[in-house]
Amino acid sequence: MTIRQKLSMDPQAADVRTNDLEDLVGYNLKRAYVILSADFKRTLGEDGFAPRVFSALSLIVQYPDITQSELARMLGIERSGLVAIVDQLEQRGFVQRNAVPGDRRVQALMATGDGCAAYEQARASVEAHEEKLLSHMTPRDVETLLGLLRKIREIEE
Amino acid sequence: MTIRQKLSMDPQAADVRTNDLEDLVGYNLKRAYVILSADFKRTLGEDGFAPRVFSALSLIVQYPDITQSELARMLGIERSGLVAIVDQLEQRGFVQRNAVPGDRRVQALMATGDGCAAYEQARASVEAHEEKLLSHMTPRDVETLLGLLRKIREIEE
DNA sequence: GATAATTGTTTACTTGGTTAACAGTCTGGC
DNA sequence: GCCAGACTGTTAACCAAGTAAACAATTATC
User: Fold this and answer.
1) Domain at A20-149: CATH architecture
2) In angstroms, rounded to a whole number, what is the distance separating the alpha carbons of residues B5 and B2?
3) Where are the domains of chain B?
4) Which of A12, A99, A112, B149 has the highest CB neighbour count under 10 A?
5) What are residue B123's phi and psi, to 5 degrees?
């Protein structure tokens, strides 16, 4: 078998989906996430929110006066990593840091009116992006997928 | 409602799984992937392969003489990003770059005997890590999940 | 033969995280 | 009341994993 014949086991061919990696959940999660994430960024555009910023704003809107520690825990990231995100949202006028009576270490995060409006708009865009991107799947499939992903996430608790 | 009463809508409470983010596929994919990835790294340990290196070795073993461009395409990454990965595998004696007769630009990647052995060991570890991590899910659930993730990945083609 | 495309590499850069350390603050046990 | 330990948000440094651009060499196409 020459080198050219070996390459005729063309890794780009249709049954490329039979290698070991195709049976690994982690690998497939990563590849699927890359697709969703790239389209998210494309949809929201340059001036829009990065996924992690959108997530943070989402929770700040839904949990008024959430603290940074709580938010970091909910998002599954380190507190230090949240600083730049909150700075960004604060600088854009979407979030304010408020002192908390009774505990001078803590700041409560509150979305501004502009922040809520921006969030609603972004949320609609994000939902539309997912709906369109996944339109080749049935709503039932999407629900099943979410359920299974949540099942994985039970490990977090 | 005081600030303390607001915070009694405890974001850490059991029904935290009802916010907007919980219905987004992208967000859940990311969170699930972080879990799988962290456990992968824990399982293979410091001297083991990072997920992306494991993935590359996997395909090199299964597609002997694959070129770097083909490999990059299959993994969904840029050619330049693959150089460091292949360098690492080559340096550890797991992979060799071979000239291809007839096309002097191309190098065919071939796993060495050591590389194949290391891969088989790692593959077994990876499979065991997933089996254990996902043991709270039925095999059918895992199969369904893989199917749905593959459905998402159809977008890639 | 000229031009466009491809290959693998190098370099610079970006993004999204983690870690460690810190000052300030709070908590709980003695 | 005191104090050690824990917590808060921040800063700076670092890391991993990727992308983009440029390039020399090579191949493909007209």
Assistant:
1) Orthogonal Bundle (1.10)
2) 5
3) 20-150
4) B149
5) -60, -45
The share of chain B scoring above pLDDT 70, in percent, equals: 89
Tokens read off for A140: 């039932």
SS3 of residue A135 by DSSP: coil
User: CA B154 → CA A35, A134, A137, B115, distances in Å?
Assistant: 10, 10, 10, 31
User: Is B118 an interface residue toward A (CB < 8 Å)?
Assistant: no
Q: What integer pLDDT is reported at residue A24 of this predicted model?
A: 97
- The amino acid that residue B1 corresponds to is M
Task: Please name the residue of chain A whose CA is at the shortest distance from the CA of residue B125.
Answer: A24
Is any atom of strand D within 7 angstroms of residue B127's beta carbon?
Answer: no
Residues 6+ apart with CB under 8 A from B157: none
Contact of B61 with B116, CB cutoff 8 Å? yes
Structure confidence at residue A1 (pLDDT) = 34
Decide: CB of A4 under 7 A of nucleic strand D.
no
Q: Which residue has the tokens 């890794």?
A: A11
Give, in order, the Cα–Cα distances in Å from B21 to each of A45, A59, A111, B24, B26.
20, 8, 16, 5, 9
* Pairwise pLDDT comparison (B33 vs B3), residue with the higher score: B33
For range B48-59, the mean pLDDT: 96
- Average pLDDT value over all residues in chain A: 90
Fold observed for domain B20-150: Arc Repressor Mutant, subunit A (1.10.10)
For A11-153, list the strands marked E by DSSP: 66-67, 95-100, 103-111
Taking only the tens place, the pLDDT of each residue in B88-145 is 999 999 999 999 999 999 999 999 999 999 999 999 999 999 999 999 999 999 999 9
> How close does chain A come to B91, measured CA to CA in Å?
23
